[in-house]
Amino acid sequence: MKLTILGCYSATPRIIAHTTSQVLETRGHHFLIDCGEGTQIELRRHKLKFNQIKHIFISHLHGDHYFGLIGLISTFRLLKREVDLNIYGPKGLKEIITLQLKLSNSWTNFNLIFHELDAKDSQCIFEDDKVEVHTIPLDHKVYTNGFLFKEKLFDRKLLIDNAEAKNIDVAYYRKLKQGADVYNKDGVLIKNTEVTTDGRIPKRYAFCSDTAYSEAIIPIIQGVDVMYHESTFLEDQAALCAKTKHSTAKQAAAIANKARVGRLILGHYSSRYKDLEPFKNEAMTVFKQVALAKDGKIFHI
Amino acid sequence: MKLTILGCYSATPRIIAHTTSQVLETRGHHFLIDCGEGTQIELRRHKLKFNQIKHIFISHLHGDHYFGLIGLISTFRLLKREVDLNIYGPKGLKEIITLQLKLSNSWTNFNLIFHELDAKDSQCIFEDDKVEVHTIPLDHKVYTNGFLFKEKLFDRKLLIDNAEAKNIDVAYYRKLKQGADVYNKDGVLIKNTEVTTDGRIPKRYAFCSDTAYSEAIIPIIQGVDVMYHESTFLEDQAALCAKTKHSTAKQAAAIANKARVGRLILGHYSSRYKDLEPFKNEAMTVFKQVALAKDGKIFHI
Lengths: 301, 301
Hints:
Two copies of one chain form a homodimer. By secondary structure, the first copy, chain A, is an alpha/beta fold. In chain A, 24% of the residues lie in helices and 27% in strands. The first copy, chain A, has two domains: 2-154 and 200-300, Ribonuclease Z/Hydroxyacylglutathione hydrolase-like (Metallo-beta-lactamase, Chain A, 4-Layer Sandwich), CATH 3.60.15.10; 157-197, no CATH class. In chain A, a hairpin with a 3-residue loop joins strand 7 and strand 8. The longest helix of chain A is centred in the first third of the chain and has 11 residues, at 93-103.
C-alpha cells in the first residue's frame, strides 16, 4: 500500500495548507479518500492520474472534506472521461452534486454512481477479489464515517522445483496458488504446503476522519498496520475539542494503543498551531509509533 | 478603480492557472466578481481582506466561475464574520449554497442575502451614493450576465479662497460640493461654477464573462474606461468557439472597437494555448489598447 497525503489540515484551505484528501494505492486501485477544495490541483501536483481514480470515499459533509468533489467531477467531464466513477458518502451528497450538474446543464458522459451511506454500524461498502472497504462509524457533529481498507489474502507462492519433483500437472498450479491440495499425475494427493509457501501478508489501513474520542471503533480497527487518526487539537484545548467533537493527539494515541495498531499517522491540525512537533510529542507519551501527516508526504505500508 | 485578477483561465484549475475571479476596488467597495475553486486561497495570497468583501457577483453557474463560493462562505463563517454578505447570481445559486449549509448543519452567523437574477435585459442590481452595478446580459450556453460597475459623480472640488472671498457661510460648502448654487451672507446668489471646479472623473468598468460574440451588449458598455472580455479561443478555433458559445480574441476586440472602450483586457484562455501573446496580437489587428489578464496582475483604472 502507498498512501499519499494531498492535504491534512482542518477547516479552511490556505496557501500552503490543504484540507483533507488522501490517495491510497493498493492492489491496482487508487482510492481517493475525502476531497477538500483544491484536491484536483494537488492530484496534478503529485502526478496522480485522474483516470485511475474509480472510487472516492467521503467521510462527512463538512466542507473541508468534500468541497473539491464537484470540481473534480467537472474536470473529469471536461477531460472526456468514460470510466465509471463510484462515490461513497453520506446521504445528501448525491443531491448536492446532481443539483450543480443540473443547473449548469453539464451531465457527465461517464457513469456517476453514488453509494449513499446512513448506517450506524460498520458495513462492507466495496469488495472485489483483492480488496475490501468497510466503514468505521465515528462520533462527530454530523454523520461521519472513517474507512477501513483491507487487502485480501495474496496468492500462495508456488515452489516450482518442488511441484515439478512431485510430478504435478501445470494445469493445477493456479489451484495450488489459491491454497488447494491437488492430485499429481500418478493420482497421489499432494498437500498444498509441500509445494507452496505463504504469499505476501495482506495489509490494512484505517482512515479515521473527524471524531471525538471513541473506543467503539477499536474492535473494527484492531491490529491494523497503519491508522490515520485526526488530532485537531492538543490537550491544551481539551474543552474546545470536546465541544467540537474532535480529538487531541493524546486521545488519538490512546486509540492507537488500545487497538494495538502498527503505526499512527496524525493529521487534521487546527491552524492555531504553527508548529506540529508538539502533536507528535504529546501522542508519544501514550504510543511510540507516531508519524505526522504533512501535505505531499508519502507513506509506504 | 483598482482591479486585481485572481484567476483568468477557463474550465479547470491547475497548479499555476486559476479559474475566473477578480476583485474590483472602487469608492470604498471591494467587489468580488466570480469565484472559481480556490478563490479564497488567491484572496489570501494577494492579501485582500475577507471582511471588506460585502458583495459577490456570479456571472453564471459553470463551475469555473463559482465552485469556490461555498468554500469562501464557509471560511467567512469559521472566521466568525458578522458583516452582511450580498450575493448576486443566477436563479439556483441560493439553492446550491443553502443545501450545502443545511446538510453540514453549518448556518452562517452573518446575513447571507441572495439577489437571484433571471432578467433578460440589463438591470441595476446595486446602487448606493457612490456606485451603481448593472447586469450585461450575455449569450452563453447557460443564463449568464456580465457586470457594469459605474462610479457616480464625485463631489465638485471647492475653491476655498474663492468661497471665502465671496463671503459664503461654511454651512453651505457641502451643498456647493454637490453642485448647488447658494446665497452668500449678503443675500447674493453665487453660481456654483464661480467657487468650484469639476471633481474627479467617474470611471466605468465592464466585466464581460463567458459569451458568444454579441453586439447586443454594445449600447450597455459604450465608452467604458476598461472592458474585460473573455477570449477563450483564437480564430484558429472559430468553429469550436461558436459551438461552445465563447469568443475569440478578435471578436472581443471587435466589440471593444465598436463600443469605443478605453482599454480591453482579455482573459478566460483555453488551456490548449501555452503562449498568451497570440491573443494580444490577434486582438490588436482590430483594436490597439489591449492588455492580457494574468493571475495576480493588477490594473489601475
